[in-house]
Structure to design on (229 residues):
């Protein structure tokens, strides 16, 4: 996950091969303001879990006062990640066993909220599967192929960017859309672009950001590139 703010440079020209991007949504589309209280999925338990997560980040020194803190308090993580995987097997057990939790299932909500607000990385994709429309429940074998970064890392990177209204932000590696959501909250949707090589990750990020009222430019990187040095 890399984010590059730019408040003055002109829009970038189309990327040459081998990094070919296709814009899948209109970056000029207006975004509705985030109204957390209007989301049926934003329960009192979720609000309390966000506040506790932010408090832990502050206590650890990973988060200070400012717009990133306000965004993390406001953004409902269970809307960006209404499903997440937990591993049920021991580290040395083969094949591994996973369980896909779903916020729409009352029996899953407590554990899912704890997972989403633990500060740890969150597993959001198994074996490259489509993320939207998948049934919850157990999975065997395979591996986790997409995750949301740890919150301490995400908060630290976002604060280093010194995000401000009107800045343009490039988020490389959409993941669950957390970075893009914070950028939209702080900077405004018009200048935010989020990229990922996996079309399923891109599609899920686009839909879930839209559920928050945010419609940034959501692009798919067409080919893998190697960055070294």
């Amino acid at each position: 996950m890399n984010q590059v703010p730019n408040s003055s440079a002109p829009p970038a020209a189309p990327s040459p091969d081998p990094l070919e991007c296709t814009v899948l949504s209109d970056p000029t589309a207006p975004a509705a303001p985030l109204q957390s209280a209007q989301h049926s999925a934003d329960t009192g338990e979720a609000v309390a879990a966000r506040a506790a997560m932010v408090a832990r980040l502050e206590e650890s020194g990973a988060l200070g006062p400012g717009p990133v803190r306000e965004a993390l308090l406001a953004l409902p993580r269970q809307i960006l990640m209404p499903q997440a995987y937990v591993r049920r097997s021991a580290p040395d057990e083969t094949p591994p066993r996973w369980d896909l939790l779903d916020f729409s299932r009352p029996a899953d909500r407590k554990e899912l909220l704890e997972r989403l607000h633990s500060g740890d990385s969150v597993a959001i994709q198994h074996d490259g599967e489509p993320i939207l429309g998948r049934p919850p429940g157990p999975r065997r074998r395979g591996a986790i192929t997409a995750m949301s970064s740890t919150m301490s890392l995400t908060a630290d990177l976002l604060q280093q960017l010194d995000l401000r209204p009107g800045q343009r932000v490039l988020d490389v590696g959409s993941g669950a859309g957390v970075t893009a959501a914070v950028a939209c909250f702080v900077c405004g949707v018009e200048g935010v672009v989020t990229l990922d090589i996996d079309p399923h990750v891109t599609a899920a990020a686009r839909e879930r950001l839209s559920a928050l009222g945010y419609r940034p430019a959501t692009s798919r990187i067409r080919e893998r590139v190697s960055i070294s040095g």
